[in-house]
Amino acid sequence: MKLSARNQVKGTITRIAKGATTSHVSIDTGGTVLMASITNEAVADLKLEIGKQAYAVIKASDVMVGTDD
C-alpha cells in the first residue's frame, strides 16, 4: 500500500467500539493510543479485529496545539 499521506503510524488494534453506523477503533502505537472514527462498513471491509496490526494514517489540513500554561 502506498499513500501520499506522510503521517503513517503502525500499531495494534486494542479496541473496536461499534455504534449504530460508526465504530471507534483504538490503535496502540507503542504506548500512545490513537483513535479513529470510521464506518461499520469499513471495519468489516478491512476485516479489523482486536490484536490485528493496522496503520493510523493522519491527513489533516489543520493541527491544533495547546499547552497548560
UniProtKB/TrEMBL annotation:
Domain Mop: 2-67
One Pfam family from the record: TOBE
Source superkingdom: Bacteria
Family matches, as InterPro entries: Mo/tungstate-bd_C_term_dom, Mop_domain, Transp-assoc_OB_typ1
Keywords for this protein: Molybdenum
Identification of the protein by name: Transporter
Species for this entry: Acetobacter musti
